Amino acid sequence: MKNKLGVHALVWVGGWSHEECERAMAQTAEIGFDLIEIPALDPSSIDSAFTRKMLDKYKLGTTMSLGLDDSTDISSGDPEKQKRGEARLMQVLDVARDIGATHVCGILYSAFQKYFDPPTQAGIAGSIDVMRRIGEHAAKDGITIGLEVVNRYESNVLNTAAQAVDYAKRVGLPNVRVHLDTYHMNIEEADLESALIDTGAMMGYFHIGESGRGYLGAGNIDFDRVFRGLAKAGYEGPITFESFSSAVVNKQLQGILGIWRNLWEDGADLARHAKGFIEHGMKAAHEAHARSALT
């Protein structure tokens, strides 16, 4: 299997103190993941030097993810908000550079919130202008930007893979790519497999999560089709498992994501199951794809 496998830090911890950082790294490495995804809603809370030290200690790669808020919404059409949003994203890129992150992903193109009006063309154009500068800056450090496609309750800009492909093409940089997530795709896409195949080479990052945010296979997502879609698309980038439970609480994300129920207690069991589930699913999908290519 060519894809590096990752796990979101919120499977382990709700914050990023030194103790939480090391605990998350140790548990990620123990199960055998290749990388850990670090949330960066507040990049100032990340001790870059200590984080890099722990990544080296546990021999892990890393990626980062975040969403902008209303005051930093680069899709708003408000020049001051755009300015603050660009500054926030640049701050995250500096942290990503310092810790050796390969990807910065998430809702980077708008606010991470429920909107009550559709986006404007001027707002989207402004977002693309900022994202082009962000992408150029990221490229200097070999960082890929992932535009996460999320459901209609978390953004009004990119809700489908096709929208993200169009946005990324308008940015026009090879390191600004589409970030797909099965939890969101299950809400918005008519056909998950086709969406993955159609995104193809534009896909730069992938989140795997269940419809209810819990154990993979316990919800209603057809993961056989998801794995087939990834294989047919020729996707070789990271596959990161994302799950949330009120057992591990980040207060800011709990409210935005609506994490009100305790979906699991044992993060290690959850993550170990996810790793095996992904490995088996991708192996089967690649073998099936190889057989079909011979016929």
What's the short story on this structure?
By secondary structure, the protein is α/β, with parallel strands linked by helices. 46% of the residues lie in helices and 16% in strands. It has ten helices and eight strands.
Describe this structure in words.
The protein has 295 residues and is of the alpha/beta class. It has ten helices and eight strands. Strand 3, helix 3 and strand 4 form a beta-alpha-beta unit. Helix 3 (79-99) packs parallel to helix 4 and helix 7 (192-199) runs parallel beside helix 8. The radius of gyration is 18 Å and the shape is globular. The protein starts with a strand and ends with a helix. The model has no long low-confidence stretch (mean pLDDT 94). One of its GO terms (molecular function) is isomerase activity. Keywords: Isomerase. Pfam families: AP_endonuc_2 (PF01261). This is Sugar phosphate isomerase/epimerase family protein.
